[in-house]
Design brief:
Blueprint: H1 3-21, H2 26-36, E1 41-44, E2 54-57, H3 59-70, E3 76-81, E4 85-88, E5 91-94, E6 102-107, E7 110-113, E8 127-130, E9 135-138, E10 142-144, E11 174-179, E12 182-192, E13 197-202, E14 205-215, E15 226-229, E16 232-242, E17 248-250, E18 255-264, E19 270-275, E20 284-295, E21 299-306, E22 313-328, E23 330-338, E24 352-366, E25 370-375, E26 382-394, E27 404-408, E28 411-412, H4 417-452, H5 458-463, H6 469-481, H7 498-525, H8 528-535, H9 538-549, H10 556-570, H11 576-580, H12 586-618, H13 623-648, H14 654-659, H15 665-692, H16 695-705, H17 708-716, H18 723-753, E29 764-765
Parallel strand pairs: 1-3, 2-4, 3-6, 4-7, 5-8, 6-9, 7-10, 8-11, 9-12, 10-12, 11-13, 12-14, 13-15, 14-16, 15-17, 16-18, 17-19, 18-20, 19-21, 20-22, 21-23, 22-24, 23-25, 24-26, 25-27, 26-28
Antiparallel strand pairs: 27-29
Helix pairs in contact: 1-6, 4-15, 4-16, 4-17, 6-13, 7-12, 7-13, 8-10, 8-17, 9-12, 9-16, 10-18, 12-16, 13-15, 15-16, 16-18
Length: about 775
């Protein structure tokens, strides 16, 4: 770790501790933010002569409104385009807007582009935003390019000397162009019938687009949905794109691009390229395309580079994951002889170097028998191209007809990187399993030891799983010291916004605090053996919530596992002998059972929610993300429980409780501190298993650890081991083994479907 990174890490965790001590001050901050909103300047285009539903041109009114908004002395400005229809010609919304730090353009109406083609000078598009910091474009409105008159002139697929309407090169032929932008958000807008590209990004940084609706007829030429070029830290998600060309095209010079949750079709799919047509093109690196669906498209995932490219360039570190294909002609294709013009030559090999390309978890149907085509350059072969868990079948078949994978001029063999990664994954899984199986029983026993020797505060026991999070700060800091610094260029990092992270940590922290409180009450009123066996039902709750949140599939073995674990807990409801050993009333016993069951449901919901957050919000599964989530949710939960501790007045009894502790004051402190540390180590293992496997697998490991506690409880607390408990333990272990066997079958199936890096001139059949 470098000095700069060390300073950043120290500052990061000092900020966590400061947040802990100034938690209550945040409420006053919210009033400051709320009061700030009143200073927002509102600029309405109607104040400058624009009239809704008036067929006269409103271009001058829009330009005047923009000038006032951009040149305002206010730091926050809202430019309002109200509901209704407005006709406008080419518009240039240019910065810099020196004093404005938050500029929001709210398009609520329908903007229609002029159909007078003479207004679109050579190299000009329709609406351009340029050189602005902190722009938000939103409002639910529509940009209608009215492109039907222009489409007959977009004949470049057949004429290499075509003259295009509304270039740099093709990038200016677009309905919405963003150039030189920083910290831009575009959400909840529609673009229809563009004359050429719908949206283009050039030299943009920190750009986020979400909830976009982009449509044009399937036969409309060159109506790409989104084109990205020479940009970095770009993130598009949760959008629907149906056009006559690429839904998303990734041009040259891009880095750290994420495309996720896109519904594409009709169109030409998601493309990288075309690359290599012009001299001095920059490299493409750090692309992630995931959780997308292609329906009726010509291509699914396509990488295309020009033959006889004039200069050297590269495209590397690209991952295409969790993609569903529905009736796609070419689901996976690499074409390094791209040449759409009849006059160009495709005999000279492409000079674009392709490497480190991962196709993972791609399934669905193809409308052609050749589902995978890897046509790499003979002069510069592809390197490290991996296909993992690819399941494609012919759309016209019953689903069991194999498809060919046509690997032409394919690739050079590479190292056994996936196997190495697989071994590392199993090592990590083993460490996480040990954390769960060892430290969870230890923490539970220590919590019961506190109650057995004079401890009475449920809030103290509630705090034990939470308050130890500062230990993880030290652990994470020293573990990062041992790591080699990573290059920012090769790591895709799209951190969620502060508001998103704060909402995530607050939500998970509140659920965690509720779980911990119910856990403490259950542990107070139930024998520790009975308590642990009932808590094993959390696997059933996790599966239930994962079914709705994470599309968890239920196989016969999983259903059997859930049934056995649920029955093993239900047996203890009628276990009256356990009640007699705890010196509690029947009402308290039932209350303990209900609270323990509630704790099981709470942790099941939390684990399923965390799995969803890793997939939809964090979008990267790293140890730092796991640690941050664990630390911050524990921080929030600790604050909530501390408020309850002081509000209830229990804190006043803690000094006398420590003095009267049966094992002594030192043991009192050691018991609580050890329990707190054990809970944090267990939590790291739990969350680690979630992103290495799934929330259901994580909870199944927890379930198998819970039967260990009754055995220890018999030795330490002399709990009775009745026949019902023995039978419950057997069922719990059986249920766990059933789930593990299903996990083994999944891994075995995955290995048979995976392929090694493809060999030169190889042909693989699925």
């Amino acid at each position: 770790m470098s000095i700069v990174e060390m300073k950043f890490t120290i500052f990061h965790y000092l900020r966590v501790l400061f947040f802990f001590f100034f938690f209550m001050a945040l409420s006053s901050y919210s009033f400051v933010v709320r009061g700030d909103k009143s200073s927002v300047l509102i600029v309405d285009v109607r104040s400058f002569g624009a009239r809704a539903n008036d067929h006269r041109d409103s271009t001058k009114a829009f330009v005047a409104a923009w000038d006032m908004a951009c040149k305002s002395s206010s730091s926050s400005v809202d430019l309002i385009i109200p509901r209704g229809e407005f006709h406008v010609g080419p518009l240039r919304f240019s910065g810099p807007c020196t004093n404005v730090t938050h500029l929001t353009v709210r398009v609520k109406g329908n903007l229609k582009a002029s159909t007078d083609l003479s207004k679109y000078r050579s190299g000009g598009g329709w609406i351009e935003f340029g050189w602005i910091n902190g722009l938000t474009l939103t409002g639910g409105g529509t940009f209608d390019g009215q492109g039907a008159l222009a489409w007959p002139f977009n004949n470049c697929t057949t004429d290499s000397h075509c003259k295009l309407l509304p270039t740099v090169r093709t990038l200016k032929r677009t309905s919405l162009k963003f150039v030189g932008m920083n910290r831009t958000i575009v959400r909840r807008i529609s673009s229809v019938n563009s004359k050429f590209f719908h949206m283009a990004l050039v030299q943009c940084r920190d750009f986020k687009g979400t909830r976009l609706n982009i449509t044009a007829p399937s036969d409309s030429p060159n109506t790409d949905g989104i084109h990205i070029e020479r940009s970095s830290n770009v993130y598009f998600s949760r959008s629907h794109i149906a056009t006559g060309d690429d839904c998303v095209s990734i041009g040259q010079g891009n880095s750290q691009i994420t495309i996720t949750s896109i519904k594409c079709g009709p169109g030409h799919g998601i493309s990288v390229g075309s690359l290599g047509r012009y001299p001095n093109e920059k490299d493409v690196k750090g692309l992630v395309v995931r959780d997308c669906k292609m329906s009726g498209t010509t291509n699914g995932i396509r990488i295309k580079t020009w033959a006889d490219s004039p200069g050297l360039s590269a495209a590397t570190n690209m991952t295409f994951q969790n993609i569903i294909m529905s009736n796609v002609t070419n689901p996976i294709i690499i074409d390094q002889s791209y040449c759409p013009f009849s006059s160009c030559s495709s005999n000279v090999p492409s000079k674009v170097k392709l490497s480190e390309i991962y196709f993972k978890n791609i399934r669905g149907s193809s409308s052609s028998k050749v589902a995978v085509q890897l046509h790499c350059s003979e002069g510069m072969p592809c390197k490290k191209v991996y296909l993992e868990n690819v399941h494609l079948y012919l759309a016209s078949s019953s689903g069991d007809q194999n498809l060919e994978a046509n690997l032409i001029d394919a690739t050079e063999p590479s190292s056994s990187e996936p196997q190495t990664k697989n071994y590392k994954r199993w090592i990590r899984l083993s460490i996480y399993v040990f954390f769960v199986l060892f430290f969870q029983p230890l923490a539970t026993i220590l919590g019961r030891l506190y109650y057995e020797n004079g401890g009475e505060s449920t809030y103290v026991v509630t705090l034990l799983p939470l308050i130890g999070f500062p230990v993880l700060i030290l652990f994470n800091f020293f573990s990062q010291l041992r790591q080699q610094p990573k290059s920012a260029d090769t790591n895709v990092n799209h951190s969620p916004s502060f508001t998103t992270l704060a909402s995530v940590y607050l939500c998970t922290g509140l659920i965690l605090s509720a779980y911990a409180y119910l856990y403490a009450i259950g542990l107070l009123y139930l024998p520790v053996s009975t308590f642990s066996l009932i808590l094993a039902s959390q696997l059933a709750f996790t599966a239930f919530f994962s079914y709705f949140l994470n599309s968890q599939k239920f196989t016969p073995f999983i259903v059997n596992s859930l049934f056995l674990l649920t029955v093993s807990s239900a047996l203890l409801v009628v276990d009256t002998e356990s009640q007699d050993t705890t010196n509690v009333s029947r009402v308290q016993y039932v209350l303990g059972f209900i609270c323990t069951l509630g704790a099981s449901a709470g942790i099941g919901l939390l684990l399923s929610l965390i799995q969803l957050l890793f997939r939809k919000v964090f979008k990267e599964h790293t140890s730092s993300v796991v640690m941050d989530l664990t630390i911050y949710q524990s921080l929030v939960a600790s604050c909530v429980v501390l408020i309850g501790l002081f509000a209830s007045g229990e804190w006043r009894t803690l000094p006398s409780e420590m003095r009267n502790y049966k094992l002594g004051q030192v043991s009192y402190v050691v018991t609580l501190v050890s329990a707190a540390i054990s809970w944090q180590v267990y939590t790291v293992g739990l969350v680690g298993l979630i992103f290495e496997s799934s929330s259901v697998f994580s909870n199944s490991i927890t379930a198998v650890g819970l039967p260990i506690v009754p055995v220890i409880a018999v030795i330490v607390f002399h709990d009775k081991m009745e026949a019902s408990k023995i039978f419950s333990i057997v069922l719990a272990i059986w249920g766990f083994l059933s789930f593990v066997y299903q996990h083994y079958l999944d891994e075995k199936k995955l290995k048979t479907c995976n392929t090694d890096p493809v060999e030169n001139d190889g042909t693989q059949t699925w």
